[in-house]
Amino acid sequence: MKEKVLLEEWKELYEVAVKIKELNPWKYFWDVDIITLILPENEEPVYCSVMGRGGEFYGIGFYFGFDALDNFYKIIETTDMPAQQIQRFQEDNVIICYFGDREELFKEELQIVKDLGLKFRGRNNWIYFRSFKKGYAPYILNKEEVLKLSAIMKYLLQALKNYIKEDIVVNFEEGETLVHKYDEQKNQWVTLAAPLLLPQRKYLIPVLKDELLLSRITKQPTTSAEIEVDIAYLNITIRDKEYDRPIAGRICVLADSKSGMIIDQHILSPEDDEVQYVLDMVISYILNVGKPKKIFVRDEYLFHLLVDLCKRTKISLYIKRKLDAIDYFVEEFVNFR
User: Fold this and answer.
1) What b/e sequence results for 142-151 when a residue is b if at least 16 CB atoms lie within 10 Å of its CB, and e otherwise?
2) What is the value of pTM for the model shown?
3) 41, 90, 156, 218: which has the highest count of C-beta atoms within 10 A?
């Protein structure tokens, strides 16, 4: 059972969120203008995106580490993927502070706001928080996240104050970021402009070590088939008493691209080994049907899961943001429910 967040801990988080809101940071930043917090206790930076300059949606996204920031840019750059599938790029190591409307809050959050004596009124004025974890739907913060975000938002608050007060010039369009970090030489926290450096992402690349199985796969005849493989998001939320937060509907699926037929599928639970399911589906297909001429996957993560297998078996592997057979199946699945 999760440890309950104390009202005093919520109070500390809401107090700093209110102070940040009072600064109207969206007057100074676009959502692609990244603020980088380099904290001694973290191995990787925390990246912050201020949303709201367009006047439609207000919030601050906190992206923990290099991979989370890489996914942030993928969300921005991906324009040809079905909307509900883009959420794969915001499924882990992300917390968002929203400035939204009353009806967007959970019942539990409305009670917290009431108990704290906060008086939010009108649109885009209700503060709430969402944690994003792989395999789960966005949900209210737990105790650890509340404490962590309270500390991080205090650093962000100081960075914003320094940026506004000192009129720091940051050339965001040329790849700079606003950095807030501790300067050991000066023995103080500093806020300054610096190049935004993002290390090249390292993806998991499984290597099949069973030489006997690999030999069986390689000997299978090559067919003219083209298949699609994906871990697709179903845009549904599953509540299960075994879990302390709602589960995101995700399905590992393999389909024939030409006929649209779904050949294999498995609805994933948070503890499932999705890597093994992907590999097992593809290998099972090859052993039963033959080697497909082409395999299409939706993203770089899945591409790297299959790249070694496809290279060693001479199967062409491609990234394709829209997977017609799987996308149709997902749409019909959701409508059927």
Assistant:
1) beebbbbbbe
2) 0.94
3) 156
Cα dihedral: 185, 190, 195, 198 (round 10): 90
CATH class of 211-336: alpha beta
Starting from the edge strand earliest in sequence, which strands make up the sheet with 176-183, in order? 126-132, 94-100, 59-64, 46-51, 34-38, 176-183, 188-195
Residues 150-196 pLDDT 10s: 999 999 999 999 999 999 999 999 999 999 999 999 999 999 999 99
Domain boundaries, the chain: 7-195, 211-336
Token duo for residue 78: 């991906």
* Helix 107-115 with 7-22: angle, nearest 10 deg: 90
Structure tokens at 133: 């974890």
